[in-house]
Structure to design on (313 residues):
């Protein structure tokens, strides 16, 4: 009897435990059902929002999501990007021949001329040429130009690291392209005129900024791909000897020159004499006055001498 009661109690406990497990399972299913029903209701509520508010939020976040994307940059930006500018001064014997040789080396290197200037002075002649040279031919082109100098050349090279600028511009370009695509997608689904006008305005601004970024990227990339080389040449001026004219022509020229000099001398003498006339007149009057006074004194002395002789006798 006692054994039967224990067995009956055990069966009752097992039954209660099974009922408890069944209740827990139903609660979990209810929770899942409520969560799924909540998630199904949420999109319906979000669809009731206006098109303008949704476009504004998506447009404002499009650029940030593009900038923070982990897309790898091009391989060209994974290494240092340098812009080089070289200035080379050389002294040559024949300027024209040297310029021809430099142009020949430039064609072989794939370089092109962007500026040329020539000057001539009394003692020296100079020329300055500027080339854009592919970066892989930069040092070879400089070495070939240095060999053309008759004296020790003067070389100066400046380098500018534009890697950070290129990476920044590439990131901005990706962001603007993503924003442009999103604006185009919004424009396809926009139904209201106000939304279309706002999206079109933002699209125009974005495309304008895209063109500016692309232009800046192309400019910097061209400066990286092609280094600038400025070459200044100088040479001593060559004075060509003058051909001597015939003897008869030289004699005629000498005679003509002498006559011209004599005429000039006579004219200068006449001009000088004309300037001295007032002084000569004053001197002449003074001379005549002095001479008159001396003659008068001499006459008086001559009259006094006979009287003195008579008194002595």
């Amino acid at each position: 009897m006692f054994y039967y009661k224990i067995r009956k109690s055990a069966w009752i406990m097992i039954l209660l435990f099974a009922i408890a497990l069944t209740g827990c399972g139903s609660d979990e299913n209810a929770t899942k059902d409520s969560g799924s029903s909540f998630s199904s209701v949420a999109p319906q509520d979000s669809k009731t929002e206006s098109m303008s508010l949704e476009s504004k939020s998506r447009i404002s976040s499009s650029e940030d999501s593009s900038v923070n994307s982990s897309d790898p940059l091009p391989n060209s930006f994974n290494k240092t990007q340098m812009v080089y500018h070289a200035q080379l001064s050389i002294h040559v014997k024949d300027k024209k021949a040297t310029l021809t040789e430099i142009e020949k080396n430039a064609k072989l290197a794939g370089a092109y001329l962007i500026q040329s200037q020539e000057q001539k002075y009394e003692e020296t002649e100079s020329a300055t040429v500027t080339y854009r040279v592919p970066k892989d031919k930069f040092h070879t082109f400089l070495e070939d130009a240095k060999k053309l100098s008759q004296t020790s050349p003067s070389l100066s090279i400046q380098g500018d690291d534009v890697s950070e600028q290129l990476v920044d511009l590439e990131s901005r370009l990706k962001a603007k392209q993503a924003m442009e695509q999103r604006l185009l997608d919004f424009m396809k689904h926009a139904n209201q005129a106000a939304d279309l006008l706002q999206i079109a305005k933002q699209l125009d601004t974005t495309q304008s900024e895209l063109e500016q970024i692309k232009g800046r990227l192309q400019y910097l990339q061209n400066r990286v791909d092609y280094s600038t080389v400025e070459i200044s040449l100088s040479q001593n001026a060559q004075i060509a000897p003058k051909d001597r004219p015939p003897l008869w022509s030289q004699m005629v020229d000498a005679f003509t020159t002498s006559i011209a000099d004599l005429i000039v001398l006579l004219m200068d003498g006449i001009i000088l004499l004309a300037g001295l006339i007032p002084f000569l007149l004053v001197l002449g009057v003074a001379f005549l006055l002095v001479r008159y006074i001396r003659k008068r004194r001499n006459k008086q002395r001559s009259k006094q001498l006979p009287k003195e002789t008579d008194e002595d006798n």
User: Anything to note?
Assistant: The mean pLDDT is 77. The first helix runs from residue 2 to 47. The two ends are 226 Å apart (CA to CA).
